[in-house]
Amino acid sequence: MKRRVAREKSLQALYQIDIAKSDAEEAMESVLNGAPTDEYFKKLVTGITENREQLDGMIRDNLENWTLERLANIDRNLLRIAVYEMVHSEDVPVSVAMNEAIEIAKKFGDDQSSSFVNAVLSKVKVKIG
Hints:
129 residues, transcription regulation, NusB-like_sf, NusB_fam, RNA binding, transcription
């Protein structure tokens, strides 16, 4: 599975975890729908669920006039994926993590999602240096 597909599948799994309160394993199995698992997909979902407090704190610190809870589920989980990659994935350049999140926001989010995600991630990028 290409990394873009792994990110999109991760977004779907994280969405299920948030909405249906599924555990990570159930959500991953549901999203894969019988297809073989992918290591990067699994790394994203488990890494994000294990580091959720840290990721959410970093996102909260970079929101203006929004709370994390008020964000659209797609935007919130895309931010989690990108911030996770920016901080925890040594083989993914920060700019790639940002660009991937912006492109996926265009596909799955609303009209404002990509520019919103870009703005928040740009602030995160400055803070992590």
